[in-house]
Amino acid sequence: SYVLTQPPSVSVAPGQTATITCGGNDIGRKVVHWYQQRPGQAPVLVVYDDGDRPSGIPDRFSGSNSGNTATLTISRVEAVDEADYYCQVWDSDSDHQVFGTGTQVTVL
Amino acid sequence: QVQLVQSGAEVKKPGASVKVSCKTSGYSFSDHSVHWVRQAPGLGFEWMGWINPDNGGTKYAQKFQGWVTMTSDTSISTVYMEMTSLKSDDTAVYYCARERAGATTGEVDYWGQGTLVTVSS
Question: How far is B74 from chain A (nearest CA, A)?
Fold first, then answer.
């Protein structure tokens, strides 16, 4: 089955940039989505189709995808961005949705 | 506004069944597939499958085929997920989530609040 690997944690100071990676075999050929989950809450879609934002998501959130790595970038990080972030793809071989292992973002 | 409201927490014994409901509102029920995803305590997400409320079509993750059933009731804009033969490692928060309009790879844009299912003897 297809595996998506994320770093367990990322720490960033307020106002700086957080970079969260999502590694998968030839992931650049797939379409990647990103979710934010604050403690005790349901997830929120923050980026879809590699780099598009749903309405209401600040433009501080951006995404890219190439080769074996997809990336979620949070610019001008705020305390409210402290959460777990998960990448997701649809694996056509298995016709399954696959989630990444998740990254905890800590705002220092 | 779009809302997905799930039924309350459940405590079940091993071998029992559970049925979780997900009542939707604020959009055309038949126009969006609904996915089910679970999250074991302290862990990540596991996709379970989806249902097309318009025609009742379903797709289950291979792991859940045969013991998970997803259904829908268009008269009350509600989808259901039933699991049988529960085991302790099925203890998790179960989420329903609406597939985004125009989605080509199944991403979801609105989630229910989650239902904690605890399986314990």
Answer: 24
Query: Nearest C-alpha of chain B: how many angstroms from A97?
Result: 6
DSSP-derived secondary structure for B63-81: GGTTTEEEEEEGGGTEEEE
State the Rg of chain A over Cα.
13
- Average pLDDT (B63-83) is 96
Query: Which of B2, B19, B12, B20 minimizes the C-alpha distance to B115?
Result: B20
Residues 64-83 of chain A whose Cβ lies under 8 A from any Cβ of chain B: none
What is the C-alpha to C-alpha distance for residues B108 and A37, in angstroms, rounded to an integer?
Answer: 14
The closest of A64, A85, A90, A108 to A7, measured between CA atoms, is A85
Write the pLDDT tens digit of every residue in A57-96. Answer: 999 999 999 999 999 999 999 999 999 999 999 999 989 9
Predicted confidence band of residue A19 (pLDDT cuts 50, 70, 90): very high
d(CA A53, CA A10): 22
